[in-house]
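Lab manual, section 2.4: Encoding a predicted structure.

Procedure: take the sequence of the chain (102 residues), apply the prediction step described in section 2.3, and record the output as structure tokens. A sample record is shown.
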Amino acid sequence: MIYKINTDNFELSQKAEEYLEKQVKKVERFLSNYTSDLPLLQLSVKHHLKRRVFEGSMVLHLPEQPLSAHFRAASFNEAIKTGFSKVVRELRELKEKRQIYD
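Recorded output:
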């Protein structure tokens, strides 16, 4: 899977990048039916300095349909975890729909 991340008002630390990689690998487990470069994950995270929150969105582009999630949390890791859990939930739902129609 290819993924792109855009950040606003902060730089990713090495630890944050490692955490992001870990979350991406969890999503990749659900994408075994696709070629490795087909799914594209676009991730955008903004740090609001006045409100002291991280918020953003992610879109996982699949041939059937794009899956998206919006998230907001006090820390980067919480925000990423929330976003990825939403995408994983949508992937599970998509997988269940496929099994019904197969």
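Check your result against the sample. The beta strands are 2-8, 40-48, 53-61, 66-73.
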